[in-house]
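An example makes the point: we let one protein speak, the chain in one-letter code, the fold tokenised, and here it is:
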Amino acid sequence: MKPFILLIFYFIFSAFHVREVDKTEFYKAFSSATEDGIDDMINRLDQEKSSSLVAAYQGALYMKKAGFVKGVNGKVKTFKKGAHLLEDVIQKDPSNTEYRFLRLAIQEHAPGILGYNKNKYEDKSVVVNGFSKLNSNLKSVISNYAKDSKVLKASDLGN
């Protein structure tokens, strides 16, 4: 009887266990130059429990994926799908440094014709101000990004 009760508790607690999205894997896919890497991460995120972090990651990946989509209409539709996801989470949590970093990185590389570049310096300010509070892995990602960024410089981060 006891093993049965333990099994029930295991299933109950595992159902409520929220696994953190693997940031290392996400940023590997986000910096990837292949559509397969992006698609694979989007598929993995689809399996995760819905959260603002998952939505932000999906949004950033869809916007990046738009560069691989064939045809102008498909590119714009995919980009807008991602922008909607990312903008929604930023609107709900405007001081989140990671979300602002994702938007900054997308804005800096989005084609000008999309008009998705109006918050670069606002996002830079949030990233710079929140940088010291981030974990070391995310600091490393942002510092590496700043090495090649035209907007965010390593010196802005105190490096």
Notes: Residues 23-153 form one domain. The CA atoms of residues 108 and 133 lie 23 Å apart. The chain has eight helices and no strands. The helical segments are 2-16, 23-30, 35-46, 52-65, 72-92, 97-109, 120-130, 136-146.
